[in-house]
Amino acid sequence: xxxxxxxxxxxxxxxxxxxxxxxxxxxxxxxxxxxxxxxxxxxxxxxxxxxxxxxxxxxxxxxxxxxxxxxxxxxxxxxxxxxxxxxxxxxxxxxxxxxxxxxxxxxxxxxxxxxxxxxxxxxxxxxxxxxxxxxxxxxxxxxxxxxxxxxxxxxxxxxxxxxxxxxxxxxxxxxxxxxxxxxxxxxxxxxxxxxxxxxxxxxxxxxxxxxxxxxxxxxxxxxxxxxxxxxxxxxxxxxxxxxxxxxxxxxxxxxxxxxxxxxxxxxxxxxxxxxxxxxxxxxxxxxxxxxxxxxxxxxxxxxxxxxxxxxxxxxxxxxxxxxxxxxxxxxxxxxxxxxxxxxxxxxxxxxxxxxxxxxxxxxxxxxxxxxxxxxxxxxxxxxxxxxxxxxxxxxxxxxxxxxxxxxxxxxxxxxxxxxxxxxxxxxxxxxxxxxxxxxxxxxxxxxxxxxxxxxxxxx
Length: 459
Prior knowledge:
Largest sheet: 5 strands, mixed
Low-confidence stretches: 1-9, 18-33, 79-88, 148-160
Active site: 360
Subcellular location: Nucleus
CATH topology of the largest domain: Aminopeptidase
Family: Belongs to the MYST (SAS/MOZ) family.
Organism: Leptocylindrus danicus
Region (Disordered): 1-41, 75-109, 143-167
Number of helices: 10
Oligomer: single chain
Mean pLDDT: 83
Radius of gyration: 27 Å
């Protein structure tokens, strides 16, 4: 759920099965940051360092401003110096050494790969690329030491305005954040093979060291066991007897099925699910402590079994009345309406519990867009129906919250985004805009929602 980007800028996923089509991921806004032009340095003397900024050629040929996050040697550089004719003069010897060093620099440069982050874009687009994709005349090396300067400056400011205890706590938190950022800044797995899909990953995930880093990780779509080698994957597929997630089926509508899983009773499956999900969720922190959570697995069912397409988790006990902790539709199944279905399922469960709920904050960029779209859909349809039945005057924010299980603050923020709320006599009042409601209903497309009659869950 992210800001838009041209289609070619989306990480790739493709079907292994010849008759299956690819589902594109969400797109993201593309803001260009100008990098001051510089005179192109001689190729042999260029040394790209971490935090350097430069325009980099994207996969479709577009130049995008980027920052170097990491670099690596992809093969041993040719350190052999250029042969020169032996002479007695010192100047000739110095010139020969200079030529040899330049050749070594050139070899080293072309044997390096650079992990870049495209500025103003989500981290899921970060990737390794070689120097041939850099527009070297835009190189800006002024940021190499900026991060260290910011850390020192912010530390001095905190010390002058906060107590020693608070200062120490802030320092420890900042250190943990830096360690986490350092550990997760580079994707450790390039792509996964799961079922009939080969999917390019988006983010780092803390798989055990014997499986990471690796180019391709093979994952069983039924038990979620992960393997590093294709031969192991083939053998596992032949002997794995699982054909559906563990837990109990709570929803079945044609070929759409949902399973509820207790994290404590099915710990290994849920841990594997969290590791898999982290490859596509930037800020997910739950990996191994799955006991306090319920997991709801959405699947497509065919003759071969129930194939996972997405999931959400929620705390068994939430003091903040969160009805959802993490939500994910896997990239190969996005644009198929599963995101709205999963959100609506979480609210149907809240209705069965006779509660109002809200997703755990903060939401991801994709999450914000999906939730805003869902809330708008539900509220506009409710207002349209109430208007036709002549019940608009008796409709309050509290009543809407009770009917939809959507928290009051989420209703208010949605109406505010539509300019349909006003503060009058000490309370928020819906400002009905019939033109906006009619226009929305006219142009809205059908979306896939959870249907209460197919939900067999009871509290």
